[in-house]
Amino acid sequence: MRELVGACKCCNKEIYCLDGFFNGMHTDDKEIFCFDCYETEVKKEEDPQA
Ligand SMILES: [Zn+2]
Hints:
two-stranded antiparallel sheet; binds zinc ion
């Protein structure tokens, strides 16, 4: 079972839900990121000092 959830806000990679496992990350703004972009984009915003 593979369900297309959307595309990564940053790199446009398609994000799927695989057997209940979400292949990416949601932000509080209901944006979708792949794991790679979540690491670089979202964490950067949360912790600008890093
Ligand atoms: Zn991405």
